[in-house]
Request: fold
Amino acid sequence: MNNMNKVGIIAYGITPFTKEDKKIESVLLKSTKNLFENNPNIDRNDIDAVLVSTNNNSKYLSPILSEMAGIQPKIAHSIESLCNSGTNSIVSAYSYIASGLADMVLVAGAERYDSPGQILEWDNSRGEFKHPIFWASIFAKSYKREYSISDEQLALVSVKNHKQAKENPNAISDKTYTIQDVMNSKKLTEDLRLLDCSRPCTGSASIILVSEEKVKKITDTSVWITGIGQKTTSAGFTKNTSLSSMESTKAAGQSALKMSNKDITNIDVAEIHDAFSVCEPIALESLGFSKLGKGTDMIKELYDTNNFKINPRGGLIGSGHPLGATGIAQTIEITQQLQSNADKRQVDDAKVGLVHNMSAAATSSTVLVLEK
Amino acid sequence: MNNMNKVGIIAYGITPFTKEDKKIESVLLKSTKNLFENNPNIDRNDIDAVLVSTNNNSKYLSPILSEMAGIQPKIAHSIESLCNSGTNSIVSAYSYIASGLADMVLVAGAERYDSPGQILEWDNSRGEFKHPIFWASIFAKSYKREYSISDEQLALVSVKNHKQAKENPNAISDKTYTIQDVMNSKKLTEDLRLLDCSRPCTGSASIILVSEEKVKKITDTSVWITGIGQKTTSAGFTKNTSLSSMESTKAAGQSALKMSNKDITNIDVAEIHDAFSVCEPIALESLGFSKLGKGTDMIKELYDTNNFKINPRGGLIGSGHPLGATGIAQTIEITQQLQSNADKRQVDDAKVGLVHNMSAAATSSTVLVLEK
Reply:
């Protein structure tokens, strides 16, 4: 732990992921209310910081949430880094606690289905192709060619994650699909179909992080953040050195594992950023879960053996992808897994978990290692 | 310092504050370029985090700035808390360094003259009165009544700060005004005139913070952040317990002074958030620089003796107020003062400085204490 203070996760709240047309303030408050309802022992006066993760254009959301939730924090601001906002916010919360500036931090993420973070406005190199599906398609084409992967092999990512989402009561999807269903879904680009894509949605997730000293006074079921890795390689995906691996994910994964004194074989359960089906095998390879080109083989084996190790809540494809809430929802899932509190999604004997989140064609990534 | 790692400011860059209609990305890059031009010894590879402070709606600005400036940071995200964004970002940078997650952090703030942060959309209690001038007017009315202060006494804030801004080459204003000029300027509300107000503008400011260990390798003129205080009381100004004092400023000031083991009499020079003239005397009182109701007397004495102690760069009224850049520009001014590098604005023998920033009718405040 590099002599840092330990930081624990002691409480969480979440909303169902939907297509609801509600104001961002209401969406945001809902998961924080859920958190306090589930944890009546937490004193709002102990909360030193409120960090809001979102791509919404509304301003001053942290003081607004604080006022609505009855909190008067010292530190209050919003954090944005597209899809990676939630995990950036959790790392920021970690730093406030480890630095001694805060003992208890609420991180609340929320997004509406029509989030402006879903359109990539800045990268003129892509001309009119501003929707993320265009970079994902280029990844898919490159990955399939380099490792001789079929569309059906990628489709299995969606099949597996929808199956797992069926056990997640907050997921936007409760349907299961076959490989043929995915192949028959609307072809959006040459290489990707509708069911290869995560869906924009409305949702919120909140989490409370605390210092080690404070944890002991509140709970004995805390989960600890023991590894953090982050890397930004660029903003535009045309700067990526490879389109069939994720360099920022590789760097972030190595840093997080090193900090926690773990290697990838120690990870029992992981949340992987599968905004599009092709992302999951590439991320598994870049993190070292599988050899290069063998990510889809690993996914098939997990599917065949009904093993929920990767994306137990159904990933972004099955759960939905409310950008600012996603990294927090991923972290909540791993927390539940390590607390043996994941119901039908539970992975046996999960002691060490990993969260992988990223933005914009993996131009930036965050990896967290969590332990019970 | 509560056993925290020390954090130093080793470099800064700034742009003139103008009414230019430039893209936010260009505005942002300009002060970072200025920083690197002035500090060619800084190795971009050493930068672990890039934090962008802005109210602009553009997303992913930290990776965009990083790519344009040739940086590949670990941590990269934007921070928003209205006018208080810049100082929130500096405190976040401090926490990343003090926690050990980063050794060197670039904080870059930027805003355009048409920032969406200038309209307060969330507080329905104010009906159609969404521009900040409406809360400032209520403050002015309350403050003038409670302490028998005249419009002319408030006008002197503007006279003083415009005079001081004339010595600031980056200020939007280079004109001086008399009390009568302020009184004769356009009456915008019953209690405030045009020259009582800071102006929205386009501008950018960047700063680099580093760990103590790293400081020694780069410079011997670092300025140290030794005190930090922050407080959020609410989001809506109708929740303020007083309209002629600033409760969040009082709390933040007390925390910052305590952390730095200083009292207010030790402060040689200060940047105070004077979005409107009435803010300066109220903030001086809430920070303890003067007794209640005596802030304008202090301002008159400083003006009469040509003492630049308060808002040497001209404050927000004289310099302009590019929201996300303001807190960083304030911190740069105090850094220059403590380095005896403030030219005609220099306050004699300045050893300890203070930065006060706030948002939305002082519903949240940040106070920093800096030492050389």
Summary: The domain at 7-115+200-218 of chain B is CATH 3.40.47.10 (Peroxisomal Thiolase; Chain A, domain 1). The CA atoms of residues 249 and 365 of chain B lie 5 Å apart.
